């Protein structure tokens, strides 16, 4: 019997065999020419994956929170004002980081967890607050809410703000176009849709953001995250020259190189389309089971994860029941509704068979918890969704 569970949480996710093989290869020196070449290639490919042809990429050892910290530390100066489009736990986290660097933060919430402010509400807040920065969590992993970054970024630019996007749970899964959409800085982490084990903070800053950083009146208040140290390192790797500030996570960079090749091999548009198609099938299965989702409107549902309320009479023991069916899903995270829902990640190398296996496990798990549904109903609905798509 295979003693392996399918990992369907919102990061880390399932990784491809080639990525894992790169992780397990003998570690090279961080100044070996073959490693310099791999790092340089990863930087250039990161630009393509972020759709950021004129952007400056950063690859630094750390989690997604470091990527948030790095963007804030280098761009925010004391007394800058930030408008936070707040859709949950990670929007709150970004706000706390901005405040740590002396920013004045204004939060704009939706009506309840799972909701998001409307474009009209964001516009009127931009008019009254006149912030220097607009902060957007593309997909808030605590609620499964995805906001319309394209329209929000356009509004932000219209009101002359710098637009910062936390793309940790979207980038390389849900569509993000850094340059075309006018995003000034966008960040992610390796373990989500990028498809590499945890440990890399990834960010791209556009030319306006780099100019803002270079024009700072105050020093960067963080030693490890300071772009004054990292920019020359990134430039050296891209010029295929050795350099050192902090030792890079060598094996993770080797794995990132492989994953970025795989992502570009699939193509960004087909990759976005695969995430849309599979999330639609997953949701069809969840709907067929009669379960309700946390996002309050259909257009707010993310393609990279789903946040689903437990049905009447079922609680978090469902997680263990699903685990016993061979699939790992995650519990709630948003403090206001934490015990009422669970989360399923479907991003990165996720396939139709992963979706089917997960729905089957949820269905059986629910049955173990006493919830009644027609056997096979979720998988059938997902199959149907996939087949309609395929014949189109
Ligand atoms: C996961 C996540 C983070 C935090 O990333 P870590 O790697 O856990 O530090 C931040 N923002 C969003 C939207 C996330 O999904």
CATH topology call of the largest domain: Aspartate Aminotransferase, domain 2
Look at the structure and give the CATH class of the largest domain.
Alpha Beta
Shape: globular
- CATH homolog superfamily of the largest domain: Type I PLP-dependent aspartate aminotransferase-like (Major domain)
User: What small molecules are bound in this structure?
Assistant: pyridoxal-5'-phosphate
Bin the helical content.
Answer: 40-55%
> Order of strands across the biggest sheet?
2-10-9-8-5-3-4
Low-confidence stretches: none
Radius of gyration: 21 Å
Number of domains: 2
Second rung of CATH, namely the architecture of the largest domain: 3-Layer(aba) Sandwich
Main β sheet profile: 7 strands, mixed
The mean pLDDT is 97
> Which structural class do the helices and strands define?
alpha/beta
- Strand coverage percent: 15-25%
Q: How many beta-strand elements?
A: 14
- The end-to-end span amounts to 39 Å
Q: What is the succession of H and E elements? A: EHHEHEHEHEEEHEEEHHHHEHEEEHH
Report the total helices. 13
């Amino acid at each position: 019997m295979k003693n392996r569970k399918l990992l369907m949480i919102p990061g880390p996710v399932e990784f491809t065999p080639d990525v894992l093989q790169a992780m397990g290869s003998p570690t090279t020196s961080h100044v070996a020419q073959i490693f310099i070449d791999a790092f340089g290639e990863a930087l250039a490919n990161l630009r393509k994956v972020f759709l950021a042809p004129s952007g400056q990429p950063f690859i630094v050892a750390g989690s997604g929170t470091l990527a948030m910290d790095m963007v804030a530390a280098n761009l925010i100066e004391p007394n800058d004002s930030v408008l936070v489009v707040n859709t949950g736990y990670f929007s709150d986290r970004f706000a706390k980081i901005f405040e740590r660097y002396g920013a004045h933060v204004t939060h704009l919430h939706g009506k309840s967890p799972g909701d998001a402010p409307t474009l009209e509400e964001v516009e009127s807040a931009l008019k009254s607050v006149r912030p220097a920065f607009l902060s957007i969590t593309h997909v808030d992993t605590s609620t499964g809410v995805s906001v319309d970054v394209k329209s929000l970024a356009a509004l932000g630019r219209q009101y002359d703000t710098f637009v910062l996007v936390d793309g940790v749970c979207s980038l390389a899964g849900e569509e993000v176009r850094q340059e075309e959409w006018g995003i000034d800085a966008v960040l992610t982490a390796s373990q989500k849709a990028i498809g590499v084990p945890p440990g890399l903070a990834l960010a791209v800053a556009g030319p306006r953001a780099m100019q803002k950083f270079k024009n700072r009146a105050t020093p960067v208040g963080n030693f490890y995250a300071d772009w004054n140290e990292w920019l020359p390192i990134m430039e050296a790797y891209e010029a295929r020259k050795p350099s050192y500030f902090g030792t890079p996570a060598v094996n993770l960079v080797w794995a990132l190189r492989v994953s970025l090749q795989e992502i570009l091999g699939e193509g960004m548009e087909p990759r976005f389309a695969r995430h849309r198609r599979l999330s639609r099938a997953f949701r069809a299965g969840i709907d067929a089971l009669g379960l309700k989702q946390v996002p309050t409107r259909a257009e707010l549902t993310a393609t990279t994860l789903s946040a689903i309320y437990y049905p009447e009479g079922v609680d978090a023991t469902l997680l263990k029941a699903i685990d016993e069916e061979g699939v790992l899903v995650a519990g709630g995270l948003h403090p206001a509704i934490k015990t009422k829902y669970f989360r399923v990640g479907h991003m990165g190398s996720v396939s139709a068979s992963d979706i089917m296996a997960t729905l089957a496990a949820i269905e059986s798990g629910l049955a173990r918890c006493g919830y009644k549904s027609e056997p096979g109903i979720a998988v059938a609905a997902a199959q149907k969704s996939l087949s309609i798509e395929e014949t189109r």
